[in-house]
């Protein structure tokens, strides 16, 4: 039952983060949907680490070259998702308020992704099967 409560809490946090991103795009004073491209980074972020976990030996830990490369790619994606709204705001494509809302959404969504992989990445969990 505790796993269900954790999953519901993570779903709620993820929806709050996405609400910030959608508000950055849909509020009448901002009216540009360019910040919504960070959702692509949300989808791409966990993929290198998930692939590397399938291809590394469980006894090797996190020191394998495959896992190190995956962490490097993941951090590049994460930094890019924070840099995109800042670059768009500096180029006057979007307003700074939309940039701040997108950055707040980024923090919440990435903490949600981190929480999911921290809480539900145990081998005895039902969520780890996929």
From TrEMBL:
The chain crosses the membrane at residues 6-25, 32-51, 71-93, 100-120. Keywords: Membrane, Receptor, Transmembrane, Transmembrane helix. GO terms for biological process: late endosome to vacuole transport via multivesicular body sorting pathway. It is a multi-pass membrane protein. Pfam families: Vps55. GO terms for cellular component: endosome; membrane. It is found in: Membrane. Its main location: membrane. Belongs to the OB-RGRP/VPS55 family. This is Leptin receptor gene-related protein. It comes from Vanessa tameamea (Kamehameha butterfly). The gene is LOC113396694.
């Amino acid at each position: 039952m505790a796993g269900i409560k954790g999953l519901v809490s993570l779903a709620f946090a993820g929806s709050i983060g996405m609400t910030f991103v959608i508000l950055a795009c849909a509020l009448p004073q901002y009216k540009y949907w360019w910040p919504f491209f960070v959702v692509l980074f949300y989808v791409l972020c966990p993929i290198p680490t998930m692939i590397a976990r399938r291809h590394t030996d469980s006894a090797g830990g996190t020191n394998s070259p495959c896992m190190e490369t995956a962490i490097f790619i993941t951090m590049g994606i994460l930094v890019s998702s924070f840099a995109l709204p800042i670059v768009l705001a500096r180029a006057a494509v979007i307003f700074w308020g939309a940039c701040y809302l997108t950055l707040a959404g980024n923090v919440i969504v990435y903490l949600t992704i981190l929480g999911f992989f921290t809480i539900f990445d145990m081998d005895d969990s039902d969520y780890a099967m996929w």
